[in-house]
Structures are given as C-alpha cells and as structure tokens.
Amino acid sequence: MKPHVFVLLWTSVALSHQDAEAKDECVCDLLNIERSFPHEQFASLRSAAATCASKLSPQQAVQMDSLLLGLERRLPQLLGDMATLEAEDDGDLYGLLSLILIHNELQELQQLVDQLNSTTTGSQRLITDTGQQLQELTTELKTLEQFDTENQVRRQSDNERLKRDLEQCRNGHLPPTAPPAGAAATCPHGHFFNVSTAKIQTAGEYPGSYKVGAWGRDPRPQEGKESWYWLVPMTSSNKYANYVRQYSSLSSLTVGVSIPGNVQIHASNPTTNTIQGPNVVLFAGALYYNCYNQGTVCRLDLVTKDISTVRLPEDTRYNSKANFCHLDECYQHTDLDLATDESGVWVVYTTKQHFGNMVLSKVEAGQPPALGRTWVTSVFKQSVSNTFVVCGVLYATRYVDKHLEEIFYSYDTATGAENFHVGIFIQKLSTNIFFLNYSPMDRMLHAYCDGNMVAYRALFQRDGIQEQDTEELQ
Fold it and tell me: At what angle do helices 93-144 and 39-54 cross, to 10 degrees?
C-alpha cells in the first residue's frame, strides 16, 4: 500500500509543476472592440440635469398667475374710483380725500407692476438659459444612447412614462366618485366633485417668516369689504397669535400692503382669549378661533373688539391632545378646527366620550353665540390631516405624500350618510397643509402651506355638467 501511495503523490507533484510551467509560457491578448463608457461625461450630465430641474418649479408659474390676477382685478377697481371722483367731486374736502385714496391705490398698483416686471424678467432669463441647457443635454444624451446595447434606458423611460400616466389618472382623470345617496341636494352650486390645480400662491409680505398660519376671505363680508382678505400668522412657536392682519384686495395681499392694518386682540401673547392654533376663520366681520388654553371657541368682533365665547362639552380634548396627524407628524394645537360654508360657522373637535372620533357642531350666531346641533362621525380624528365644510357636508383629508393630499371622507349633515371613498386629490406645492377652509364667497379652498398662502377652486357638478379647471376666477 505504501509504494502505491508514494507513486500517486509523486505524480500529483509532477503534474502541478508542469501546469505552473505552462502558465508561465501562456500569453493572452484581449482586444475590446467596444468603446469604453464615458463615466465622467455621464456624471457631468447627471449633475447638469439636476441643476436644471432645481431651477424650475410650479410655484414660479403660480406666482406669476397670482400677480396677473391681482392686476386684472385692481385695474377695474381703480377705474371705478376715478369715475366716481369725476362724477361727485365737489372741489373741496371730498375731492381731496378721494385723491389721497386714489394716490394710495396707484402706489399699490405700481408695486404690483414692479413685482410682476421683476418676475417676468427673471422668468425670461430663466427660460432662455434653461432652453439652451436642455438642448445641450439632449445632444449629449443622444450620444450616450449608443452605449445602451441592451435598451435599458429605453425600458426605464417607458416605465417612467407609465408611472406618470398612472399618477395623472389618480389625480383627477378618473371618472369622479358618485355622490352618496341624498347628499347635499340643497347646495346651490351642485355636487362638489373635484379640486382644481392651485390658482393662487403667494408668500405675502413675510416670505419665510411664518411657517404656520391661516388666511382667506369673509364669506359674508360687511359692506365695502367684499374684496378684503385676512391673514393670521402664528407668531409664537408656530402655536399662538394675538392679531389678525387685513388687506383690501388680493393684489394688496400679494405685494404685502396692509392698508387697514392689524386688529389686535391683546398686547401680549399667549394670554387669555388670544388665538391658539392655526384653525381660524372669519365670518360676518367676526373672527372665530380656539381660545388660548381652553376647550372653547372665541368670537372676536373686528369692529368693536368685543370677545364672546362658546363653551364646548366638558370632556372636549384640547392643548394638543387630539391634533390632526399623519404617519410622520402631528400638527400642534389643531384640536379644534373652525370651518365656514354657505350657512355659517362650524367647529370640528373630539371628546373622551366618543373615543377620539371627530365631532361636528354648528356654531349659532348671536350674542353670545351658542353651540347648535351636533353630529358624531366614525372617523378617528388623529387619522385625519384637515377638515372643511361645503354646503353642510364635512370633508376630511389625509396625507398621501409630499405632493398629494387626499379628500377621502365626507359626512352629510342633512342625511347622516358617510362616504369613506371620496377619492379627490389635492396637488400640493409644499409638504404640509396646516390650515384648510372653504369660502363660498369665491368657492375656493384656502390653504396655508409651510408659509405660503395657496388657493384651489372647488369644482361642482350640476345636472351632469361638470365645472372645468380652466374656469377663470371671479
């Protein structure tokens, strides 16, 4: 056995030695007939594309639309004031006061035109530069396409196009959800079925200063204030406020000129009866909001400065115990949500008795105001990101992602019918909507989004005819 083993070992060593010598003598030449991929050119192309994309945003287009809308509305107003002055001028005190008012309007108009010119000049330069960059990028991409021997780029492009088509389908090109049986038959506009793209977007006079706040129009304005807008920025830790700021027109709001100025609740903040949280509304010349550190609705008369209160049920949750939320965060001090519609003011809240589900109550006008009829929903409030009311129907939204908010739920106070599949999507211009309210004055949804005031048109359907997104603002 041993000699046999020795022979095997010797043979193995001999073969290994021969293999080593053969490897030393073998020489291979590798000729690559394909051109090497230009990695540096590709990296430079990706960087240029990212820079180009960062310069373009939907906010820029909406901002210009808002400025043009303000100019369109302000010019007829100025012409009307001029005609009144010419017809009624007595050559004395009245004429002097009218001239001062017209002078102020001309100054505001000039500010609006200057801002529009600045925006237009910047946009033209951006379009020229971006167009040239896009042409260069297109040329370089065509050069790089020849390296895509397995058509991976083409397939990826097809997939991206399919994703975009699917997203557009989700965002409003599907047939609208049918209204629940008996829903809001008395609504003068018809059935609310969709939301337009953003029609107004402005940072106002405090760009970047106040992340959280509220704004809008009075659905039942006092005489002479039909064109006014209001703003309540949260001035203390994004939670409290002690004044409301007024603007005589949309253009005044856009350029940041507040002729009426502020109505102050109290010199200090926060304190008793100042504003807690962003869910504030204005109706018939009075501001409704969550009283500081109370489960109570405050009503501030903007003319007399008188404050009256509406006490909610004893077990109402407040002080950030029942906020609006989504998976990533909750919006502080949104326990009480005030809302307006054609009929008046509503308040959304929750109580321990109803295990955190949303409760809706009507706030009846009067001195003092009182809590009217109440409805209890089946929706847990902290699963909702915002609510609003249209024609007596409560709608609730939820956060989808940083680009989309979904109106997923409705409760019809006329019939008690609940619908968990409303399926209306709001295309956001920024991540968070801290305030959302409907104004029947212009049939707009006013949203306060990360320091920006944004408005969407509520679209209605009547007798099978649907309003279109292209309809002009009134």
Answer: 160
253, two tokens: 């709001």
Q: Which residues contact 162 (CB under 8 A, 6 or more apart)?
A: none
Distance between CA 297 and CA 396 in Å, rounded?
20
Apex 474 CA angle, 208 and 255, nearest 5: 30
Gap between the Cα atoms of 315 and 390, Å rounded = 27
For residue 427, give both structure tokens.
Answer: 């295309």
Query: pLDDT tens for residues 414-458?
Result: 999 999 999 999 999 999 999 999 999 999 999 999 999 999 999
How big, in percent rounded to 5, are the helix, strand and coil portions of the chain?
Answer: 35, 30, 35
Helix (H, G, I), strand (E, B), or coil: what is residue 379?
A: strand
CA trace torsion 403, 238, 61, 424 (10° rounding): 40
Q: What is the rounded CA–CA span in Å between residue 409 and residue 388?
A: 11
Q: What is the mean pLDDT of the chain?
A: 80
Tokens of 349: 């809240």
Contacts of residue 150, defined as CB under 8 A and 6 or more positions apart, other chains included, come to: none
Model confidence over 245-293: pLDDT tens digits? 999 999 899 888 888 889 999 988 898 899 999 999 999 999 999 999 9
Q: Which of 235, 231, 233, 239 is nearest to 215 (CA)?
A: 231
49 against 60, higher pLDDT: 49
- For residues 411 and 393, give the distance between their C-alpha atoms in angstroms, rounded to a whole number: 6
Alpha helices, DSSP H, located in 26-151: 39-54, 58-88, 93-144
Whether the pLDDT of residue 127 is over 70: the answer is no
Whole-angstrom Cα distance, residue 262 to residue 246?
Answer: 6
Q: Tally the residues of the chain.
A: 474
Residues 407/395, Cβ–Cβ less than 8 Å: yes
Strands 275-276 and 424-427: unpaired
Asked whether 347 and 312 are in contact (CB, 8 A), the reply is yes
Instruction: Tell whether pTM > 0.85.
Output: no
Q: What is the pLDDT of residues 87-103, one digit of tens each?
A: 666 555 556 556 666 77
In angstroms and rounded to an integer, the radius of gyration of the C-alpha atoms of the chain is 32
> Residue 6's pLDDT is what?
42
